[in-house]
Amino acid sequence: MLLKTFGWSFAVTALGLVAAVFYGGWTAFGIVAILSIMEISLSFDNAVVNAGILKKMNAFWQKIFLTIGILIAVFGMRLVFPVVIVAISAQLGPIEAVDLALTDKDRYQELVTDAHPSIAAFGGMFLLMIFLDFIFEDRDIKWLAWLERPLAKLGKVDMLSVCIALIVLLVSAITFGAHAHQHGGAHADKAETVLLAGIAGLITYMIVGGLSGYFEDKLEEEEEREHEEEEKAARTGKPKSAVALAGKAAFFMFLYLEVLDASFSFDGVIGAFAITNDIVLMALGLGIGAMYVRSLTVYLVRQGTLDDYVYLEHGAHYAIGALAVILLVTIQYEIHEIITGLVGVALIGWSFFSSVRRNRALAAAGGDGDQEKAEVSSGV
């Protein structure tokens, strides 16, 4: 079962790591490995969300998502998108950006380094909004209850996450501008660029979130309509048009999943810029990670163990929040790649072990599902 589900991921991993060694030696091997781990850790919540929706779809639409979806995820978001970011930020044509990345790495590195403040501001704001919207939402299951309960109460204030994100951006831009002018840095005139890039990141998040919400609402409408049709069919004794309804609902599920997948992929792509500027290594590492996310999605659906480790989603979002802070800090200061790559793994691991402790506490309490007892027993 494990080999069947993860077989393609293992094969892609082997090919990707071998290609990395031939491309840039053992240093490249290490970078690709770290990128793969980072992508998996940051996208674990993506797999959880995907599995929750995918299990409602029939076999045909599951195959569509796992074939067409993987092409969009790997080649679209992980390969094309980094080129687009560099092309826009460095004001190059896409073909010129790819050619530069492959033939003149020093110049490409210089352009990316020069554009890094705006890239970091854009990505940092996008990720910060994902994190803030998560922690300000009131949830039945809380991981760090002492922190999440008061934050959920604060979250009742309209647009609080947007206000906090804009304040953080303003402080980052002012601090960056003051530091650059004080030290006569090359970016002394780019505080305004950082501010604009951060606002663009915020707008992008709101557009993606709006599209996701739209598809989610459509999905709920289709589910309600299907339920009404089932009740009507039960009363009249006439069979309902199950194929049409299931197909339409599944189509909206597919669109919703693709929007979600794109939004979750974005954090991995942006985070990769904090680890390497080499587009080949980026594509290899993120592509391997994307394959594992897809395999993990299938595994969660087939095993039906989606709810076993309830804090993993929390850990993934805290990892996103940490990465957002790291990106905003790197606007001005350099942070070692190892720290960036492993912070997400540490948070995911912590949330996993917290989930295990919670499960043990529930089992000791007789499996009565009392979350309060479980939180106390598990120390969260």
Report on this structure:
The chain is an all-alpha fold and 380 residues long. Helices cover 83% and strands 0% of the residues. The protein is built from 13 helices and no strands. It has helices at residues 2-42, 44-54, 59-89, 94-103, 105-135, 145-154, 160-182, 191-236, 242-273, 279-303, 312-329, 337-364, 371-378. The radius of gyration is 22 Å and the shape is globular. Residues 241-245 have low confidence and may be disordered.
| SSE series | HHHHHHHHHHHHH
Distance between the termini: 34 Å
Structural class: mainly alpha
* Share in β-strands: under 5%
Mean pLDDT: 76
Helix content: over 70%
Oligomer: single chain
How many H/I helical runs?
Answer: 13
Q: Which shape, going by the Cα principal axes?
A: globular
Total beta strands: 0
Instruction: Name the poorly predicted regions.
Output: 241-245
Main sheet, how many strands, which sense, barrel? none
Rg, Cα atoms, Å: 22 Å
Write a compact overview of the structure shown.
The protein is mainly alpha-helical.
Using brief descriptors, characterize the structure shown.
mainly alpha, membrane, transmembrane, transmembrane helix, single chain, DUF475, 380 residues
Can you lay out the helices and strands and say which pair or pack?
Layout: H1 2-42, H2 44-54, H3 59-89, H4 94-103, H5 105-135, H6 145-154, H7 160-182, H8 191-236, H9 242-273, H10 279-303, H11 312-329, H12 337-364, H13 371-378
